[in-house]
Amino acid sequence: MKFPYGISDFKLLISEGYYYCDRTDRIPLIEEAGKQLIFLRPRRFGKSLLLNMLANYYDIAKTEQFTQLFGHLKIGENPTVKHNQYVVMTWDFSAVLPMGNTIELKQALYNYLNVQMLATYHTYQAYFSEPLLVQEDALMTWHHLLSLIRQTPYKLYLFIDEYDNFANEVMATKINENQRYAELVYGEGLLKSVFKNIKIAATGNGLERVFITGVSPIVLADMSSGYNVVTSIYRLPEFNDLCGFHAEEIQTVLSKIAEKCAFSAKQQQTAFEVMKQFYNGYSFSLKTDSLVYNPTLALYFLRHLAQYCEYPDELLDHNLAMDRNRLNYIAQLPHGSAVIENALDEANTFSVPKIHDRFGLEDMLNHVQGENELASLLYYLGVLTLDGTTPFRDTKLRIPNLVIKSLYVEKLRQLLLPTVQDQDYRKILQPFIATGNLQELCDFIASRFQVFSNRDYRWSGEMALKTAFLMFLFDDRLYIMDSEPELNRGYADLVMIVRPDARQYQILDHLLEFKFLSLKTLGLDATQINALSETELHALPAVQTAFTQATQQLNSYRPPLLAHYGDALRLKMTAVVALGFERIVWQGIEVNETLIS
């Protein structure tokens, strides 16, 4: 089985026998949805392949190849009457370099558009009665190409991939210097002029259909009336899985890999559960419960598994490092760090009144409701996803999976403890993960715990404690990490399960429970707390009570984990108690069958 990792050429994919997840049955729905459509998904989510598939389907020049390309697919059984009925042209705005001043940007864009229009002319030259006049002003070239098309029996289908790519790159270069961005989209800006001419072309001037992909609606909103005729389809339930894989599709592929690699049924199921934890969880419509897997990450994993019969060492594909850059950008914006912190707080529902479809850069930078716009942007970027609604019809959001969660944890550590480097704490983690001895890490965190005392009022002491440990313990090279998993009708604070392919290493599985005692509860001040020894801290009645409560909880969480993971589990249970933001004590918890209900 060949996996098309990084391949967005549909014809190549089909002709060379790569795996293809068939979504051609949606073509009739796309036709019915409207003539000018926009479909938004996070980066590296299969949008370019979708566009290329549609371009091949509608291309009059590919008529003779229809059976070869589509005959074995769902649409091949009952194609629409519009197949192979268009002159097609694709503009990929990610090919336009966002360098230089506005004049240089204009030249770069116009040069690219001219190249694409000339290539289109050559493809359909047999249908045209005169040569294309390529002019320095690409918009004039555009109108001449349309005049040539109007002389044929056919119309133009224009595909625009990554419509917002180079504008977003310009926007993100310097957060407080967005003059170049403004000159692209506001007033008679460059991009606005291009889309205004597309709008004009669709009023009986040769252009019949437009399909646009991108990441967010920001650029479209900022262009305002420049292109206000497009229909949004990206949150409709019938297109929730237009890009991405279902669990059943992942299972089918894994069964074939399992046969090749001689995996047992348990090994196959374990591989599926790993993929589910790390790559699943995306929802783009509130009107369906179906979740989709990130296709690029899934193909990255499946290709490696099929080739080597083992998991890739790094479960985060480094080609998705741009998500890290987007989080960095968000963190610089007003309300940015608060949104990132709130997203990681799984103990409390993260919700917004609605996902905004029309908000611009100015809204994010200046508007009093900026936090809602930022949360919406994180949704479009794929680092938050839909999670249903609250009783008051607010939209709930959550981090989709462990790959994205690792980016949040990394960013939060940079925000809160910018001077702490990986090498500062990697070695002190080893005693804990190998033996369960948490002392060195407790001392390390306690010396830096004060930074949490100054955080936003939404941070509870227990949340601060759990987050502090999560920032340093999160390691997807060794563990499948989960905070707030439901176990035996309760929620464990932090579960660290050794990755199936890391069981040969000298590391333990861990189950941790955190308790926070305020100085008021303790009846002591900071000076008194710091004067006590570890033994004296453990002897405090409130601390003993906290450890007793944690012990009961941990013992109740243990049986479901044992039932799920079986004899492979080497579980170490640990209770951690913070005394204000001054001291942290811990205790290894032994199994007590009498406490298990």
Task: Please characterize this protein's 3D structure.
This protein has 3 domains: 10-239, Rossmann fold (3-Layer(aba) Sandwich), CATH 3.40.50; 247-281 and 290-320, no CATH class; 419-597, no CATH class. The protein is 46% helix and 13% strand. The protein has 26 helices and 15 strands. The strands form 4 sheets. Strands 2-3-4-1-5 form a 5-stranded parallel β-sheet, with helices on both faces. A hairpin with a 2-residue loop joins strand 10 (486-487) and strand 11 (490-491). Helix 8 runs antiparallel to helix 9 (179-185), helix 12 (247-261) packs parallel to helix 14 and helix 20 (422-435) packs antiparallel against helix 21. The model has no long low-confidence stretch (mean pLDDT 90).
Question: What does the secondary structure layout of this molecule look like, with pairings?
Answer:
Elements: H1 10-15, H2 27-33, E1 36-40, H3 47-58, H4 66-70, H5 74-77, E2 86-92, H6 102-123, H7 138-150, E3 155-161, H8 165-173, H9 179-185, H10 190-201, E4 207-214, H11 218-223, E5 231-232, H12 247-261, H13 265-279, H14 295-308, H15 322-332, H16 336-344, E6 350-352, H17 361-366, H18 370-381, E7 385-389, E8 395-398, H19 402-416, H20 422-435, H21 439-446, H22 461-473, E9 479-483, E10 486-487, E11 490-491, E12 494-498, E13 509-517, H23 519-522, H24 526-531, H25 534-539, H26 541-565, E14 571-579, E15 583-589
Parallel strand pairs: 1-4, 1-5, 2-3, 3-4, 13-14
Antiparallel strand pairs: 6-8, 7-8, 9-12, 10-11, 12-13, 14-15
Helix pairs in contact: 6-7, 8-9, 12-13, 12-14, 15-16, 15-19, 16-19, 19-22, 20-21
